[in-house]
Amino acid sequence: MSTIKPIDDRGASAEVRAVFDDIKRTRQVDDVNNFWKYLAHDPATLKRTWASVKEIMTPGALDALTKELIYVAVSVSNGCGYCIASHTAAARKAGMSDAMFGELMAVVGMANETNRLANGYRVPIDPAFE
Amino acid sequence: MSTIKPIDDRGASAEVRAVFDDIKRTRQVDDVNNFWKYLAHDPATLKRTWASVKEIMTPGALDALTKELIYVAVSVSNGCGYCIASHTAAARKAGMSDAMFGELMAVVGMANETNRLANGYRVPIDPAFE
Amino acid sequence: MSTIKPIDDRGASAEVRAVFDDIKRTRQVDDVNNFWKYLAHDPATLKRTWASVKEIMTPGALDALTKELIYVAVSVSNGCGYCIASHTAAARKAGMSDAMFGELMAVVGMANETNRLANGYRVPIDPAFE
Amino acid sequence: MSTIKPIDDRGASAEVRAVFDDIKRTRQVDDVNNFWKYLAHDPATLKRTWASVKEIMTPGALDALTKELIYVAVSVSNGCGYCIASHTAAARKAGMSDAMFGELMAVVGMANETNRLANGYRVPIDPAFE
Amino acid sequence: MSTIKPIDDRGASAEVRAVFDDIKRTRQVDDVNNFWKYLAHDPATLKRTWASVKEIMTPGALDALTKELIYVAVSVSNGCGYCIASHTAAARKAGMSDAMFGELMAVVGMANETNRLANGYRVPIDPAFE
Amino acid sequence: MSTIKPIDDRGASAEVRAVFDDIKRTRQVDDVNNFWKYLAHDPATLKRTWASVKEIMTPGALDALTKELIYVAVSVSNGCGYCIASHTAAARKAGMSDAMFGELMAVVGMANETNRLANGYRVPIDPAFE
Lengths: 130, 130, 130, 130, 130, 130
Hints:
Six copies of one chain form a homohexamer.
Chain A: H1 14-27, H2 34-39, H3 43-57, H4 64-78, H5 81-93, H6 98-120
Helix pairs in contact in A: 1-3, 4-5, 4-6
């Protein structure tokens, strides 16, 4: 197997280019990230994933920054290098300060620690939380 | 082995009771959660964990609600039943509405999905994110 | 689908019973744990898993207690309820004291925390560790 | 610590070389992958792991391709870079087309998403599944 | 916080009922699983998730059974109790035999093992897999 | 976003330098690892994390080597590249032999495998372990 290569504007089908264009317009960027250039190998997944991300990440009850902080928290817990890099950048763009980043990391670290303490001590759920 | 039993106020040493009292005062609650009653078997871990949680969860650059949302996001990704239950309750107490919970879950789900798409497609980090 | 039921001595084929008997002899117990009674649905996996566990958990460069502590550490990190319960019991049997359990949990919690701090801060590996 | 170096045919003991030879014969390849060259530092683990892999990956009720797809699905969920690369290659060799890869990734992504939605909403198991 | 309750046909809005009806029609079942009854608290997530699952799980380059096996593999690796139960049932319905289930578990177990051996031995990716 | 840069002695505030000095003194090393140089961006997290690590990793009921083995086991299970590298080095320094490393990996691999077999077969906890 040769590794998958990214698909850029020139190599893209009309279907893929339509998604790329919508990403650029929505995010007001000149080019799409590698993530989308790789997903482009499967236009159905590209379209569905972009439509879902667009719907989910639009500010609603939670603002754009909070959503990006949550995205980083999950990516850090899962150890996804690509997603940590790209969503940390997105969180910065959405207004994450150095101090916010520090506190985000502290909470993520603590949650990962206490998750395991709760597992290991086999703590039963308090009736109040049921 | 018999399962570890929770330690409550009556069974607690002075050292443990001091931590319990600080938790109650800080959180303005009548009793501490099971998590602390189980950690009480190891007073050093109880003290250190509470001191860390107290320092980390105090509002700073991020407010209390945002910190609880992040805590839930990590606990859901890790599948820690106890922590999902207790921190969802804490997030509600800190102001999480039904709509916020729904959006939190949507972001957590999407992040877990795209983390794996990035892994599977072996997407290299964009130079802009390095 | 009806849930898989455990297979006990009476329901076991000769092939399965031979494994059960070896487990009982090796561990000097009267009955095998549920884990083996469920794996018995696939005799090939039962045999291979038991042969591997037996080989791996035999004291060698690491003693039996240390191996059980490691088993608990992994099971707690993965959140496997069954394995946490059974291997905590096995560790107790191999000599784990309350104090050891407390320190084990503390290390497991801390490792899970610093793993994520390293991920989130994207810390590059020191040349000395390469 | 200096990093572990791979052991190749020349550096291998007779015991290790016997395993290497069986891998080459079974897979009809000229050389073994890095995975085996590193495991060779522990001949007992090398032998046991190869024997297990050989037994498990042999076509049975599931064919070779299906087994490799499952291997990729697990490796992607766990974020194991080495295993993603090597088992994606193995799946290609076993007949995975581009379209199959795309659908595999889509299912893996969706499963990782819905796993967390089920966790977060604390969905109880339907009686029909018990 | 009171725990989220499932929403059934009677409590459902027209929007939710439309999704429930499509699930029943597509899967030819009389009632939807708890998963959907809980997601119904967030109609946007319910609709999007069902649309995605429907699109992804439709037989294509991979058949329905293979897709369910992959779903189970991911859910078992993540330790999602609900998803293990529901997708094992779905796999049975799609034709998974006892022997297939046994082999699926064997591959999932082995992949989880070798993923960690590759991590721990820090095995570099073979040039052939790049 | 530009990637976070490490903070070394020259760039460190008095507060950060005090922590660096304590790390060097305690570990009898000339320089601190990258981990601490990155955490230094958040002095509160740096101080708290070092204080916790120092307290937890001090020999007690478990000796220094056993604690490092546990740290490696967790890091390998989580796939944290940085932590695997740094704690394998620390374990070597604390006395881990090649044979111990081999057995550690074998136990970690097996635990990760059986964790999933227990999940997949949905094995209920034996009454004796409750």
